[in-house]
Structures are given as C-alpha cells and as structure tokens.
Specification:
CATH class of the largest domain in chain A: Alpha Beta
Distance between the termini of chain B: 17 Å
Number of domains of chain A: 2
CATH topology of the largest domain in chain A: Rossmann fold
Structural class of chain A: alpha/beta
CATH superfamily of the largest domain in chain B: Metal-dependent hydrolases
Largest interface: A-B, 26 and 26 residues
Strand content of chain B: 15-25%
CATH superfamily of the largest domain in chain A: Aspartate/ornithine carbamoyltransferase
Oligomer: heterodimer
Largest sheet of chain B: 8 strands, mixed
Order of helices and strands of chain A: HEHEHEHEHEHEEEHHEHH
Shape of chain A: globular
CATH class of the largest domain in chain B: Alpha Beta
Radius of gyration of chain A: 19 Å
Largest sheet of chain A: 5 strands, parallel
Number of helices of chain A: 10
Helix content of chain A: 25-40%
Strand order of the largest sheet of chain A: 7-6-5-8-9
Strand content of chain A: 5-15%
C-alpha cells in the first residue's frame, strides 16, 4: 500500500513508497518479458486515461500498463470530448466521476490542475503531466532506469540539460534525484530557467562542454517549443553549440555513463542526428530502455493503487 | 426597543458606552453618542435623552456598545462595483451593502466596467445610482478612452461631471508619451491619477510572483520589475509634468524603495496597499487556491515584510481593498483559466486589523488613519470624523471576536474571497451610514 491516495507531485511519495514501487516494477518487468504478458490482477477495475494534451508515449504507456494488468481502460482525449463545446473542466470531471471508475489518469496543460481536480472528486488520481508543474511517473521510471544501471544513487553526478523553465519533467526529476542523494547540475540558459533557482537547489552551467567528462548521467530535456509564447533561444546553432549532445561530446563521456531523454527527441536540437542514428551501439544510450521501464513502473503504480488492498 | 430588522434605517440612535476612537489623536473615550435625524447631537458620558425633549426617547434606537470600539466610517478608495455591465458579479446596491457590512461608508469605484467609465453620462449614472442606494460612491474615471491606453479621455469634463480621480486600473498605459501628456493635462485639474503599474513585457502570461514558489509550482512568473519599472517611469514623468500621482496596490519591496525616495525628494506621490498583500505571501499558492490569483500577484515574504515596515515608517498613505468580484464559475477552474482578483470590502478592516495590529503590533490609530483620513486626503474628500453637527458615519466594532471566514457569510454577490478559511479578529457589529443605521450583526 502506498501512503498517498493521489500521485500529483513526486513529493507525495515517501521513500518507502518509492522503494515499494521500484521493487514491484521489478516483478512487472519480468512479466513484460514473458510470452503471455498479461496478469489477471485488476480484472473488473475501470481506469480512465484522460488527456487534455496530445501525447503518444505517456498515454500509450499507461494504456499498455493497465491492459497488462487486465483492467478496462478507456481513453478520453480533449479533441474528441465535449470540452470544445464550452463544457467546464469541473463538469467534465464530475461526469467522469459519475461513471463509477476506479482510477483517473490525467494530463492537462495547466499547472496545478490536479490539485483542483483532487479537491473535487474522490477517485484516486495519477498525474500524467500538468502544465509546467509535475510529471511524477516520468521521474519514477527515470529513477528505475538509473537503478537498473547503477548500484547506488548516492553521489551520482547527473546533468539535466535544456529547457527547465517549461519542463514538468525537470521539476519532478530534479526533486527526486536530489532526494535520492544524487548531485544535480542544470545545463541551461537564463532564458530557459526560472528567475529563482533556489527551488532546484542544483549547480548550474551554461555550457554542456564544461561538465560532459565528469557526469554519470546526462539527461537531455525536450526543447518545449509548444510551450513558448516566443522564441526564448536565439537559434538552433547556438543551442547545438552549448546545450546539445553530439558525437564528439558523446565520446568524451565517462565509461559507464548513461544518456536519457523523456522523449520524443527533437533530432538535431538536443541530440544530433548522428548520435540518434548510432546511439544504439552505445550501451549507455537508455532512451528506449526508459520506454519499456515506463510500462513496468506504471504497472507497479496502478497495481499498488488499486490491486494491493 | 424595536426588533432588529425594524431598526435598520433608523436615524435616531443612541450609542451607549462605546469606546469612541478619535483618529487625530489615537485616543478612545468611553462615551455615548446621540444621533438625531442622522446628525450627531451629543458626544458625552451618559447622554440624558429625557432632557433633549422633542419626544426623542420614543423612537430612539439604543445600541449597547460596552466593550465595542466606535470608529468613523471607513473609506475604501479602490473598489470594483461591476456596474454597469457585470451585475451578475456585483452591482452598486450589493456592493454598497457589502461595504456597509465592512464598516465602510465611502468608496471610490474603478472605471473598468462594461462600458468603461470614460464619459460624462457614466459618471452621472453612477452618481445617481449612488443616491438611490444612499451610499457615498466617488466615481473614478478612465484616463484613456475605452481603457485602451491610446487616447486621453475628457479629463476636464469628467471632473466637472463628478469624477474624483483618474485611473486605467487593471491596465497600465504602456505608451510613455501618452502617460506624460495625461499627467501634464491632469495637473491643471488637481485630481490624483491612480496608477496600476505593470510593464507588460515583464508580466506577460504571468500567473504568480516570480520566485521560489512560481518555480516550484510551474506557474509563469510575474517579476516585481513589472511594477518597479513603471513606478520608476512614472516618478520620472510626474516630476517633469508636475503631476499628482497615486500608486495603487503596491506589492514589492523595490516599489517601496522607489516611492520612499520620491517622497523624500518632495514629489507629490502617494500609495496604497491591499489587505491581501499585507496578509499573504506566495507560499499560500501551494494550494493553487484561485482566490489568491490577484494582480499584482501575492509576493514573497520579504516583499510582504517590506510593506509592513513601510506602514510603520509612514510611507503608505492608505489601505484599500481592490474589491474585485467574480462569479463562481470564473474561479472554480484551473489557476491559469481563473479570473484575477479577490473581494475585499467585508474583510478590509478585519484582515488589516488581524495582521497589522494583532500580529505586527502596529498602532490601532495608524490602521484607522489608513482607512479614514489617509484615503480621504488623497481623494480630497471630507475626512471621516465623529463630530457634533456632522452627519453620522460610524463603524462599531467588537475587536475581540475571532472567527473563521466562511463563504456563506459574505453579502457581496460574489464570494471569491482570498480570506475564506482564515481566522480573523474583529467583527463589525453596527454601521451607521449617512446618518442611518445600515447594518446590524445578527449573531
């Protein structure tokens, strides 16, 4: 059992919760390797996957996770919903609650929307990303990926590179990584950062070249062009010079270091075409591992929220 | 004694044994106050009604005010009444009732209605409505036509129609030349320009004070520079133009520094703060409570403390509510989609008293001045006082009451109060407005 009913922020989870999720993810990871990748655990449970924002990976990942657990999952997307007809979000949520569902998984473009929803319904809620605020399941699957590669979190040097300002992944990941004892460096630029960095409590450099040789984990963020009301960064050329991973930088990385990205990658922006095409040959290239781990971690989470009672 | 409901509207009132507070010297005197036909007849210990003759004793309403403080009615110089145009949120009648409920007997109302108050007939409309509801409302007229920040309004004609001040409140004129011209022209008419200061290039799309909590909560930040840059500009322009400017709802430490310096240099500048900026800091936003979405935003603890010190130092001239009613659906949504503003008439005194006097040990006389003589001086209206011969405007308050603020308790049409859930000291027990008993707290 988890100590929290809703998972809105990564801070909602205790260390015990996190360890429990990591352990359970191991067993579900094993299920995913079987020929029959399904367990009957959540038969009869109904989950709504409510996405007010386009998503392929996260939405599919939750869908596969729920189906592998034999739950009934219904997808609900903003583009096909009545929201375009002027229905208010509160009415949509109340309607969904009336359908007697067991779990709500939700993504929405506004920060803090989950806090508002949670205050208005009693169904357990998983935040699949709210605006620029939090994306806790991404942080959990990232931690799980790191755990499978390194023995101990303590003292691991992580660089998180790119658009921190608009990133909910950064907000969840940095908080979780710091909590697990990792040493975090933000690689970014003032235009891509909040004015006040106190919350992140991390080191900061503007040039990826300065840290590339020292780090254990390079976490590249997606450049969130869709969340910018104007161009924050002068050019892709400038970005490539200071914030991107290219082959030359890849070769400078320590033996045993890894590269992560929440996806989808903007090829040629945060990671060069060359690295994307040949990265598979490099054992530290974990972007696809993150995807499969995402299913295992989400199965664990859904199971712990619905099945272990 | 008459039944309570029958007492409302009475203009023959005896206030028995109240602690009558005189803001000019900050002293309280245990005294009775006799009001006859709305006029204060006597302020003395043990008024003997029988001696007054005229059969007065017969329909006299006697208010037993042992342990209650008796203040002059308060002035709120920053109120959005929403009429004309948004009467579903508030109207002149409901706003006046809310004010009286809060011990307020005069208000200045902002022009960002629909249509905005930018021409004479709208000033006339508000003034005639104000007479209908028997409540003193001083209309503020727009500085720019349609509040668009492009062309100046008919400042001279608007003054003649009864405008008390000029403001584009809610908006800030970005065009510096236009602002300068308005200042120069308005200086001929000796009315204050009430300035909402905001550089849009710094505040654009912002939802919360830019700091630790906006970073944590993923809310786009509003830098204090948005306010401070415009205050700097307007101080510079006002110096050149010889204008009288009033900076409203000052929110940041840097703004205080700028205003303090300008005052020291002798500029004709005044400012007000809101109770919500004095009461809250941005850590309260962790709940994403949309009632705390206000403009300027609730700022950091450091800023809040600077506002409190500025009150002690005498840099702040008035406390004003920025009463901004919104109907429920506009607030019952995501932080981003929610409307901006909190109601404040009914909590103006309570919230200020709780924070300033109870918590920060600021003198009661200072608070009362900021709610009476301070704003009256800025608006150049008669200073509220309790004087024989004056029409009675009086707020009678129990300072010991401590109650949790509940949505249901507001009589404003809208319930979007930032203070819901907070425990606030004091309760207005009676308000005498324009010589008549206008409100009775029924327990």
């Amino acid at each position: 059992m988890l100590s929290t009913k809703n998972i809105i922020s990564i801070d909602d989870l205790s260390i015990d919760d996190i360890n429990l999720i990591m352990e359970s993810a191991d067993s579900f990871h094993e299920v995913l390797g079987r020929e029959f990748k399904k367990v009957p655990t959540l038969r009869g449970k109904t989950i709504i996957n409510l996405f007010f924002e386009s998503s392929t990976r996260t939405k599919t990942s939750f869908e596969i996770a729920a189906k592998r657990l034999s739950a009934d999952l219904i997808n609900f997307s903003a583009s096909t919903s009545s929201l375009k007809k002027g229905e208010s979000i509160i009415d949509t949520i109340k309607t969904i609650q009336s359908m007697m569902i067991d779990l709500l998984i939700m993504r929405h473009p506004d920060s803090g929307v989950m806090n508002f929803i949670a205050a208005n319904i009693d169904v357990p809620l998983i935040n699949a990303g709210d605006g620029k605020h939090q994306h806790p399941t991404q942080a959990l699957l990232d931690l799980y990926t790191i755990k499978n590669f390194f023995k101990d979190f303590k003292g691991l040097k992580v660089a998180i590179a790119g658009d921190i300002l608009n990133s909910r992944v950064a907000r969840s990941d940095i908080k979780l990584f710091k909590r697990m004892g990792m040493d975090v460096t933000i690689v970014s630029a003032p235009m891509l950062l909040p004015e006040n960095l106190e919350y992140f409590d991390s080191n900061y450099v503007y040039d990826i070249g300065k840290i590339i040789e020292d780090i254990d984990i390079l976490y590249m963020l997606r450049m969130q062009f869709e969340r910018q009301d104007r161009k924050y960064y002068p050019s892709i050329k400038e970005y490539n010079r200071f914030l991107s991973l290219n082959m030359e930088r890849l070769q400078k990385m320590k033996r045993g270091s890894i590269i992560m990205h929440p996806g989808p990658v903007n090829r040629g922006i945060e990671i060069s075409e060359n690295v994307m095409n040949h990265g598979e040959n490099y054992s530290g290239f974990k972007i696809n591992t993150q995807v499969i781990n995402g299913v295992a971690v989400r199965m664990a989470l859904i199971y712990l929220m619905l099945g272990s009672t | 004694m008459k039944a309570m409901s029958n007492m409302i509207g009475s203009d023959n009132i005896l206030i028995k044994s109240g602690k009558v507070f005189e803001p000019s010297n900050g002293k309280e005197i245990l005294s009775d106050i006799l009001i006859q036909n709305g006029i204060i007849r006597a302020i003395e210990k043990n008024v003997n009604v029988e001696d007054m003759g005229d059969g007065l004793a017969k329909d006299l309403v006697v208010l037993n005010c042992q342990n209650y403080f008796v203040f002059p009615g308060f002035v709120d110089m920053h109120v959005h009444l929403r009429e004309p145009g948004n009467e579903d949120e508030e109207d002149i009648g409901s706003g006046s009732r809310a004010a009286v409920r809060g011990g307020i007997t005069s208000i200045a109302c902002m022009p960002n209605t629909n249509p905005p108050v930018d021409s004479e007939y709208l000033i006339n409309y508000i003034l005639s409505k104000s007479r209908t509801v028997d409540f003193k409302i001083y209309p503020v007229a727009a500085m720019s036509k349609d509040l668009e920040g492009k062309e100046m309004t008919e400042i001279g004609l608007l003054k003649e129609a009864g405008a008390i001040a000029f403001s584009d409140d809610g908006k800030c004129i970005q065009d510096s030349k236009l602002m300068y011209e308005i200042m120069k022209y308005a200086s001929h008419f000796d009315l204050p320009l009430i300035l909402h200061e905001e550089d849009y290039s710094f505040s654009n799309y912002g939802l919360a004070h830019e700091g630790y909590y906006s970073a944590k909560l993923g809310l786009d930040g509003i830098s204090p520079f948005a306010e401070e840059l415009m205050i700097s500009r307007d101080i510079m322009l006002a110096k050149m133009a010889g204008a009288r400017i009033h900076i409203t709802h000052v929110s940041s430490k840097g703004s205080i520094t700028l205003i303090k310096k300008a005052k020291e240099e002798g500029l004709n500048i005044t400012c007000d703060v809101t109770p919500h900026h004095l009461y809250f800091n941005d850590s309260f936003l962790e709940s994403y409570d949309t009632n705390l979405k206000v403009n300027p935003p609730i700022r950091s603890e450091e800023d809040r403390k600077a506002l409190i010190s500025a009150i002690s130092e005498g840099i702040i001239d008035a406390i004003a509510s920025d009463h901004a009613p919104h109907y429920e659906a506009e607030k019952n949504t995501t932080f981003k989609d929610a409307a901006t503003g909190t109601i404040g008439l009914e909590t103006l005194f309570k919230a200020s008293y709780t924070k300033l006097v109870r918590k920060e040990k600021i003198k009661l006389s200072k608070l009362v001045a900021l709610l009476t003589t301070g704003p009256a001086k800025i608006l150049n209206i008669k200073a509220p006082a309790i004087k024989v011969g004056d029409k009675a405007d009086i707020a009678i308050i129990d300072l010991e009451k401590n109650k949790k603020i509940k949505k249901e308790d507001f009589c404003s049409k809208s319930k979007n109060s930032a203070f819901v859930g907070q425990n606030l000291y004091s309760e207005v027990v009676y308000t005498i407005n324009n010589g008549r008993l206008g409100f009775i707290m029924e327990d």
